[in-house]
Amino acid sequence: MELTSPTEFAKRKVQSVQEYTLLAAQSVANLFRKPLYFADMVQQADLIGVGSLPIVVLTGFFTGGVLALQTSNTLQRFGSITLIGQLVSTSMVRELGPVLTGLMVAGRNSSGIASELGSMVVTEQIDAMRALGTDPMKKLVTPRVTATVFMLFFLSIISDLVGLAGGLMVAKLFLSLDARQYWANAWQVLVFQDVFMGLVKPLLFGFIIATIGCYYGMTARGGTQGVGRATTQAVVWASVVILVTDFFVTKLLISVLSYR
Amino acid sequence: MSAPTLPSDSVSSMPARPFASAVVFDDVHISFEENEVLRGVSFQLPFGETKALFGVAGAGKSTILKLALGLLQPDSGRITVLGNEVTRMRELDLFPMRAHLGMVFQESALFDSLTVRENVAFRLIEEKGVYDDETDRRVREALRFVELEHTLDLFPSELSGGMRRRVAIARAIITHPELLLYDSPTAGLDPVTSNTIIELIVKQRDVAKTSSLLVTHRLQDAFTMATHQFDPRTNQLRALPRGQYCDVPMSFLILRDGKVIFDGDVRELARTKDEYIKEYIS
Q1: Which one of B105, B119, B128, B171 makes the best mutation probe of the A interface by having the most chain A beta carbons within 10 Å?
Q2: Which of A73, A180, B183, B248 has a 20 to 30 A CA-CA distance from B91?
Q3: Considering the entire predicted model, what is its pTM?
Q4: So what's the ipTM on this one?
Q5: CA angle A112, A230, A141 (to 5 degrees)
Q6: Range of A96's domain?
């Protein structure tokens, strides 16, 4: 294995961050330059959004269910089992809905985007596109980023709802709680700050998923092995950055919104 | 050997140009990592001429094509293409200029998720935003030129290597570019398919008068191009008598160790005293 000097290693990392930042900024700037490739955005929204729906629904439903199961024991000990709707609701809307949806979509689409664009790079299709006078950043990157941000927003809302339904199933079937009471608790506990936090996060996560997938795809080198490496790195980094961003965004929003 | 008919409007009238050469390389240097691939390469490609680039693998032939397209930027030196100094242009400004160029990549580089029809029409769809009747007419015309009209709805993976190369030529010529860049268009193909492709390139040179840079490892292809002309009456290549080779707008450029060691026509190549070149062409 080739040894790299620490300076060279640091330079490469700084350069990667610089390239990623440029790609991310350009993907947004392209929204204000013609052509806009609206048809490509719709196609990507279908592939990314509708295609991810089954895994998001399943993940959300069973996460809500298992959350109710895991906390029921503790709540019962304090005689607060009726608060289970509140607990599932705030956990799903503020945290688990956006984060788990982000992670699932990252696993499915960061890798998909990276492998698709990476294959195009190593087979010179990206160069061919540039040679034909089309900007691959506009044609390929911006539609994927726009579609992922847009669709992750709605996928997170769906995940929240089915998560509540999962909690309801556990509350009704295993804890013998009243369904109407569960829903009333779940809705009433939510305040503006909860919903705001739950809706801001997917916008950021969608941007992270798509830009990281596009970055690793567009910088793939070294044939099929390079594409495989790009795919893995895209999923790993998208997941890590989502979790790190989640922590800081949560902290920031708690401070800014004077949260309880 | 007969060739398919040429797209009717491809013999466009050449516009008056305020510049003498289609491509000018002036003392161009480029390195990848520690490896200096081009060391002060200079040459000119006059309008209407085809220049065949030779050199051993890794000599920088494909790099020259990518530099001409602006896909790579040199470390130093100046490159002018169709009067535009590509070395001083931003990527965004290069896209409109590339509309006047056509490139045939070594492995065709067709978009594998698009059909042949969509691949060939790509540039027109990008310009107009839709696939209309006019686009369809031009796509069929370009595919007829390469004798592949029947492959309209196939995907690139369903075509043979030679067919993919011909579709790539159709995609490159559909907008009647002023300059064509061919990157080893016959590499890895059987002799019959190679001849068909060379015939298409000669036809494009002699009938449409398109300037072109051709990277190839096959000397016989370049010699065929230098000693034949396309005859539009018979729709075939015609071998020229030895004394008329100078009538063919064809030249040769040989690279060695990142430098140009020969730039001239077929007669100059035959008369060369350079031992390396003699060995190379023998």
Answers
A1: B105
A2: B183
A3: 0.86
A4: 0.84
A5: 55
A6: 37-256
